[in-house]
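Worked example 2:
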Amino acid sequence: MVTNAKVSVDDLKKTAEKASASVKAAAASATATTKKVAAEVKKDAAEVKKTATTAKATATKKATAAKKTATKTVKKASAKAAKKVAESIVIEFQGRQFTQEECMKKAKAAFKKQYKGQTLTEINIYIKPEDGKIYFVANKDCVGSADL
């Protein structure tokens, strides 16, 4: 019986050695697989980073192009807005004509004559052709008139 026990122990040792070898092989295989997976993950991460960089560059280019287009549009709009419309006002009454510029000049001259030493900051004129007069209110409190 001792012989049988010795054989059984030897069989168990051999089986344990085989199992140990299998475990070592599996561990080595798992390590190799882990390394392969890690390499693939690194490769995928590099591709994602490259794609993100490309996308960022494309977005930057598009944003720059949009900004240039917007700047051109604003410049064109500003150029159109800068062109002033020619304006002219002429008042006709009983065969006489009076322009806005003439009336404004006469009102300013009357202000300077009537209110010596004061600076003109604001003026509103009222033209009354039937009286032949230009009435004005200057600097909110200076009232006067001038002949047409």
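The helical segments are 2-82, 100-114. The chain has a mean pLDDT of 82.
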